[in-house]
Sequence to fold (216 residues):
Amino acid sequence: MQSINRFLYGPTAEEKVRAWQAKLRSEQRTIEREMRQLDTATKKAQQTVKQLAKKGDVKSARIMAREVVRSHKQMDRLSVSKARLGSISNQLQQQLAMVKVTGSLQKSTEIMKLSNSLIKLPQISQTMREMSMEMTKAGIMEEMMDDTLQMDEDEELEVEADAEVDKVLYELTEGKLGQAGSVKEDLPSIQDQVEDEETERAMEQYRQQLNGLLSG
Fold:
C-alpha cells in the first residue's frame, strides 16, 4: 500500500525532509573540504609574505597580503555557511514534529532566509537552488526573487581592504611592514636574483591556488 501511495502521490513529507537533510550533510562535507584546502593555501601565502618582507619586496608582499585578506574573508563566509546548513537541518527536524500534528509541512520564513543566503555561495549554489525549488513546491518556501541574490562582497572588500592588508603585513612581518606600507629601517635588503625569481614563482603559484579556491 505504501509503495502504491508513493507512486500516486510521491514521497511522503518525512521522506522529503530526510532527503533534504542528507543533501545538507553532503554540502557541509563539501564546505569542510574547501575550508581545509583554503587553510593550507593561506598558510603558504602567509609564509610567502614573510619571505618577500625579508627581501624588501614591499609591492609583492602587499599583493600577497591582499590575497591573505581575501582568503580570511572566504574562510569566514564558509564557516558561516556551514552553520547555516546545520540550522536549516534543525529547522527541518522541527518540521517533522509539526507534520505529526498538522499532517503537512509548514511555511518557514527562517528556512527561506537561510536558503537565500546560501544560494550566494558558488560552491553549493546549484544544490541550494534545486533544494529551494523542491521546498517551494512542498509549501515550505515562497518563490525567490532574482534581485535578492545579488552579491556585493567585492565592493565591501575594496572599502576595508587597505586597512586589513596593512594589519596582515604588520602581523606577519612583526611590524616591519604595514601602517600604509611604511618600512622600518632595519628591513633586510633584496637578496640575490635567483632567490627573487624562486619567490616570484612561488607567489604566483599561491595566488593562482587561492584564486581558484576563492572563485569557487
